[in-house]
Amino acid sequence: MSNSLEIARTVLALEIKGLEALKSSLGDDFAAAVELIHQSKGRLAVSGMGKSGHVARKIAATFSSTGTPALFVHPAEASHGDLGMISRDDVILALSKSGETAELGDLLAYAARWSIPVVSITSSSQSALAKAAKIALNLPDIEEACGETFAPTTSTTMMMALGDALAVALLRARGFSASDFQGFHPGGKLGAALRKARDLMHGEDALPLARLKTPMPEVVEIISNGAFGCAGIIDDKGLLKGIITDGDIRRHFTLDAQSQTAAEVMTKNPHTAKLETLAGDVLALMSRTKITSLFVVENEKPVGIIHVHDCLSVGVV
């Protein structure tokens, strides 16, 4: 067992070494690749064979989900008709550790024929792939973590990380937002967390509201009928000034409390959300402040209310 742990640590150390070297090696070519893809009117066609192909698939998926339309093109299938997937407005991102992958030959010839720019990721700046590329991104010469077979390990880790770096740089260049990201991820926990408060809230018809001068017995009735465990307290202009919760009522449960008004019992300046607040942030605020309901406001006026169960029921965690 101890030997296995030592092997694992050695593997990770070598891959970390590769990533550190990659970080230090980035320069103008990387910035040029980002600009080329950003200015493209078409899509990014990502291709690679074998292990590089698996990485290419993941890179294409990451680009597509972060605002850069991309597709994976299998180089062998490209030679049998799939070249038609690539248009003259596209950019090709080709991955190969050696840069001599035979299956990429037809793809590169097609790119040259139609003047489709190629960005390469390879370990050899003198390889056929690097020479065919408009922009060559070269991986540092770091040994593979599997010394016995030299199977792609460190090199594919660097390829994956470089693809992530390109995708995030393009995301920032495009001004891609969390709202845009949610549009591509409507399902699962991620999609739920990226929904907006406006998507989860109960509307104005369901709002438990009382005026500043409302007697406390009426406030208690509003809270009981509302089923949110609270009442929002508004002024004559409809602005939210405070909140009264079940806990507030228990804390003020005295004979004198019945003669008090909402303004005398309420907690001022309650926590609120805006219509565009992410659902994940809504739940985080509720958890941090230990509250179960949150008013959604627009121009300081309550327009909705969210209960913690509204978040949990759609999978926000």
Short synopsis of the structure:
The protein is an alpha/beta fold and 317 residues long. The chain contains 15 helices and 12 strands. Strand 4, helix 6 (128-132) and strand 5 (135-138) form a beta-alpha-beta unit.
Number of strands: 12
Strand content: 15-25%
| Number of helical stretches of at least 4 residues | 15
Distance between the termini: 36 Å
Please describe the structure with a list of short key phrases separated by commas or semicolons.
5-stranded parallel beta sheet, 17% strand, alpha/beta, 317 residues, 15 helices
Architecture overview:
By secondary structure, the protein is α/β, with parallel strands linked by helices. The chain is 46% helix and 17% strand. It has a five-stranded parallel β-sheet. Strands 6-7-8-9 form a four-stranded mixed β-sheet. The longest helix has 24 residues. It is elongated. The model has no long low-confidence stretch (mean pLDDT 89).
